[in-house]
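Hi team, as promised in this morning's meeting, here are the two structures we talked about. I've kept the exact order from the run log so nobody has to guess. The first one is mostly here for context; it's the second one we should focus on when we meet again. Sequence first, then the predicted structure tokens.
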Amino acid sequence: MSGKLQGRTAFITGASSGLGRAIALRFASEGANVLCTDLSPTIPPAPSDTTDASPHAVRGDTPVPTHDLITSLHGPSRSFYTRCDVTSSTSISAAVQFCVEKFGRVDIVVSSAGIIAEGGGEMKRVHETEVEHFDRDMAVNARGVWLTCKFGIGQMLKQSPLAGTKGRGWVVNMASVMGLVAQKGISSYCATKGAVVQMSKAMALEYAPERIHVNSLCPGYVNSALTQSLFANAAAREYYDALHPLGGMAEDPDVIAKAAVFLASDDAEWVTGQALAVEGGYTAQ
């Protein structure tokens, strides 16, 4: 590995599964210390008919918590876990302080905790959507990102820039192609991801003078626990594959994690306020 994140400390929400887990593992392989946060350190169990040997797997192919897997691969004290509810400002503030206690600083923030409250694979128009689903999507996907940035960036401003780097901090907020283009049946989810894209642009402008980079990642569909409910049958899977001209849906979330490494490294020294679409050509159509 090239060690593009050597010596940096990353604070990652939603790190127990999904894209957050893949990003945490990839960051550690690039030399970063990683504070894993989530509602639980354990990952969701895999469907009984699913196998995946990749250590970056979104689905629960292994019972090993992300932080334990990192320390087993890269040595002790490279990663810790703390519980964090991104809808709670008190919880996020405490988690950031825990990161500082363990590693002394926060250089990278990745807001990866997210949900689709509509769930169940059932697409509903606005008049059919429960208000509670809209509120829950907004609480986790939009407010949660804003709060994570508030306390994460606040810590970056308190500390000296990391020696030998070309910035003071790096923020990667998980949006979606649904933040760039719409899809019927998940209006509340689309609203939250559009919010992530726009708040990231605003934050990029606010903190450019301090050389804190703020960007959003906009993945296409990745085969994951979050999207499994959409693939009720082979026809549904074929439909979603067809939305991605470059070989269909992503099977390995590590393709998204590699893009996150770019945005959190000096390779992106002049990149801020961007919504990076990693989606196999989805939005080019």
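And here is the second protein, the one for discussion:
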Amino acid sequence: MFVFFPSNPTLNLQAEDDSAELSVSELLERANSNLIRSDNDPILTGGDIAIGSEDERNADPCTSRGCMWGKNADGKVYVPYYITNHFSDREKAIITRGLESFSSFSCIRFRPSRSSDRDWLSIESQKGGCLYHGTVQHELLHALGFNHEQTRSDRDNHIKVLLQNVQSGMQHNFNKIATLNQGTPYDYNSVMQYHKYAFSKNNQPTMVPIPNANVSFGNAKEMSRNDKARLNTLYKCCECQHEHVIQNKYTCTHVFNIEFGPNPPLCCFTVTEEAFSDVLTDDQRLPDQQKMQP
């Protein structure tokens, strides 16, 4: 589970077992249902979001009140973290891989915390079974300000919630939130979308997609393209960092491989081929008919 506070949010990750075939949402629900909680523990909402009180929520949609992680002068967003000593080397490697994955498609950079940091993530271990690459990404997205897909403000246009099938006391997990959707469509494949039987009391679906009830959803094992696009938009990862960048007129092309490696981010701008004519190799050049147009 994850709690987002202004100072030191805690990310509790449970050890990996034999559940590699389950989706992220299935892993999280099963893991957190096994938690033994005390009266002093924070409230758990959405199955995996811990909050200190009903008045505290993660960053979406309170960005206007400074709930986002700040951007550095170099255009990167550095998020300090601390991994407790409860994890094995293998488990720490899984967590580190999840942390580092964000640098391949966004301006987010997770770094070890320092004594001077006011805010940081505390990654802790509890019993359960959610220490996988996809679940690490899911919880880190909460830390960065994102809620579950099924809580989107426009969700009623895309899924129907069947509260009659929801466990008693769990109905609040399906409340809608005034989310910032960053101009992206509802995403059945989002790593933040819970599966159709989430919190079911009778093995019947608690959510069905509409208008096509046969659409598969809630099966993600890692972040989708829309997850990445929303992250980049929320944190303005595509702001102009190069004199040749042209904003808001083009879409991204593989030219970004030059600066961002093999996985170019989903951005709000691109550069022209001419701007990099002196560094492009022949196999990187676009045929004339594929060059971007305003």
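Starting points for discussion:
The two ends are 44 Å apart (CA to CA).
The first strand starts at residue 2 and ends at 3.
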